[in-house]
């Protein structure tokens, strides 16, 4: 059977992931299974759901505590003991899965839910505190344990009676706290089907190379697909590190996949996370006519939200200190790594895909207000708005920074013109901004000028020699992509003779920066015996590093190793899991391979529907074999 391998990927733009080797953190899980309610409808199906999730958690190394049929007192004791266990192991990963009845409190202004003990007897709202655990209290307590991450899964969207006319079926949004993720089995106010969410969650938990965010993104997609969008899970995430549940021995900072969610869910999640005046302003900037706009305006009318941001009564020595704090926070939440205005020794920056707009905008707005001439803060504020898809506001601040002479502002204006390099029709407009920024020493601009010459874009004729010259300038400023691109040129003999020694040196330098595609290229060179004796073990190690750094091509290469049994025991299950992880990150070769394995039943059940799905996606991505394979499949 034909299998597709992602080869040397020096010219593919991927986002940088910084690898930091660390010891495997302790993992503690609590599974609460509520079946035999005294005054509410019993839930016999929760036994199966709890078992599925428990088995998956144990499979990936969690120390799992399970409880069944506990009353309110038992719930309180169980959660207290679990909190203490987490607090005793700083840096641990916590996972709580609750399956049972839950009920929303219709009188709570911000919205809250109660997880009910089996002795719950709720006739009116006032009965709730004596019947269950308040979800916001649970989230808050777990956030304070010094755990690196706590995941709380609420599979409680049952057909529980509502509390009169003000009540609602299903649950309401509860804000996550720092280092927590709160996941719900279905959308706000909806009822979840029995036996759908838990098995999907259990399957996703055990997949290697998946961050927590990616696990729940995949659950959302799969459950929605299986139910014809009738059940739409969602999650509220404030975990800012990439935490892996299955087979992840490194803590990495990579770009999470972009998952399209329903606008109403995004807005409701945004509002659920709003806690202060800056959040309410950010909400109104993004949703001026939104569902909660009137409530936001009401809260902004409170005296506390109308105190001057720069009160003249500040002590003379306090204002500079506060200015410095706001600048540092803005850098940490939205700063760019390659901004020339960033002072030496300032390591505060945030990968664009990790920026939380609702948090970064008010902090950076305060920084700009206190330092109106600070170009770096203007750029940061623009990045914060851009992360929230407020394109006009983002461009406004990038333009101000560029007009003030900021090279990073000029680069961002170029990216606005051609949509981050993805829209060649905007290249001509982007070109003068890139050249201006590059002339001022901006590494990212140099990199893109190199790309324009390499591919003949932006009105530039294709000129590999000039592309190489620009890549060398950017590499001198530690641009990972440009460094790897120079390796690709040497590998293929572009702009000179083919030279594997030089190629390997450039790839190794980029790999040392944490750049996954360069690691994948080193794995390929080791597997093929280029410049050195063939070393399948070393190749696998590089593929593993590339996969851990979030590189989809590295995941595809690792899947191919297990598929073919190259230096390892052949394992179709692992191959299929890695192809699945890479396909979900957009690798067309992985999509084709995954379609083949689902069509033939290798490494898992035959699934002709999903095989067609992946062949179709791969074909649309330019994979001719996958497109042909789709055409040859029988209808159905």
């Amino acid at each position: 059977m034909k299998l597709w391998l992602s080869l040397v990927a020096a010219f593919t733009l991927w986002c940088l992931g910084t690898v930091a080797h660390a010891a495997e953190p302790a993992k503690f899980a609590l599974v609460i299974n509520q079946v035999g309610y005294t005054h509410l409808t019993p839930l016999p199906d929760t036994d199966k759901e709890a078992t599925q999730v428990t088995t998956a958690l144990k499979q990936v190394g969690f120390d799992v505590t399970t409880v069944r049929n506990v009353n309110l007192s038992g719930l309180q004791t169980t959660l207290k003991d679990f909190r203490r266990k987490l607090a005793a192991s700083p840096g641990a990963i916590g996972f709580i899965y609750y399956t049972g009845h839950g009920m929303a409190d219709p009188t709570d202004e911000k919205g809250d839910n109660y997880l009910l003990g089996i002795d719950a007897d709720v006739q009116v709202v006032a009965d709730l505190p004596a019947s269950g655990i308040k979800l916001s209290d649970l989230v808050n307590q777990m956030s304070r344990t010094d755990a690196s991450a706590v995941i709380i899964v609420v599979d409680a969207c049952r057909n529980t009676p509502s509390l009169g006319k003000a009540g609602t079926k299903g649950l309401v949004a509860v804000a996550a706290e720092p280092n927590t993720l709160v996941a719900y089995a279905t959308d706000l106010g909806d009822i979840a089907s029995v036996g759908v969410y838990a098995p999907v969650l259990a399957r996703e938990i055990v997949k290697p190379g998946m961050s927590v965010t990616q696990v729940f993104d995949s659950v959302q997609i799969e459950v929605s697909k299986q139910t014809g969008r009738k059940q739409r899970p969602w999650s509220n995430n404030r975990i800012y590190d990439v935490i892996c549940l299955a087979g992840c021995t490194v803590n990495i900072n990579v770009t999470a996949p972009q998952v399209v969610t329903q606008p109403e869910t995004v807005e409701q999640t945004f509002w659920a996370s709003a806690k202060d005046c800056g959040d309410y302003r950010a909400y109104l900037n993004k949703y001026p006519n939104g569902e909660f706009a009137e409530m936001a305006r009401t809260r902004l009318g409170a005296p506390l939200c109308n105190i001057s941001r720069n009160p003249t009564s500040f002590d003379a020595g306090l204002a500079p200190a506060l200015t410095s704090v706001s600048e540092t926070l803005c850098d940490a939440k939205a700063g760019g790594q390659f901004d020339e205005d960033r002072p030496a020794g300032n390591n505060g920056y945030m990968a664009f895909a990790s920026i939380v707009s609702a948090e970064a905008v008010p902090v950076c707005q305060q920084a700009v207000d206190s330092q109106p001439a600070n170009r770096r803060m203007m750029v940061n504020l623009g990045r914060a708005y851009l992360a929230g898809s407020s394109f006009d506001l983002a461009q406004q601040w990038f333009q101000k920074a560029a007009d003030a002479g900021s090279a990073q502002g000029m680069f961002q204006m170029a990216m606005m013109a051609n949509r981050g390099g993805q829209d060649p029709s905007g290249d001509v407009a982007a070109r003068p901004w890139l050249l201006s920024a590059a002339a001022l020493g901006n590494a990212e601009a140099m990199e893109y000028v190199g790309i324009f010459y390499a591919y003949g874009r932006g009105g530039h004729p294709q000129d590999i020699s000039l592309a190489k010259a620009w890549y060398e300038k950017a590499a001198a400023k530690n641009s990972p992509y440009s460094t790897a691109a120079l390796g690709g040129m040497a590998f293929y003999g572009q702009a000179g003779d083919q030279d594997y020694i030089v190629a390997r040196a450039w790839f190794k330098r980029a790999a040392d920066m944490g750049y996954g595609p360069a690691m994948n290229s080193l794995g390929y060179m080791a597997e093929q015996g280029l410049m050195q004796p063939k070393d399948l073990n070393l190749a696998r190690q590089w593929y593993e590093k590339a996969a851990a750094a979030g590189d989809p091509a590295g995941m595809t290469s690792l899947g191919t190793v297990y598929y073919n049994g190259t230096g390892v025991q052949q394992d179709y299950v692992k191959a299929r899991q890695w192809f699945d992880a890479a396909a979900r990150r957009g690798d067309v070769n992985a999509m084709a391979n995954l379609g083949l394995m689902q069509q033939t039943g290798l490494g898992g059940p035959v699934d002709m529907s999903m095989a067609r799905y992946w062949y179709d996606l791969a074909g649309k991505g330019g994979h001719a074999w996958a497109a042909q394979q789709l055409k040859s499949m029988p209808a159905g």
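The longest strand covers residues 27-33. Residues 274-306 form one domain.
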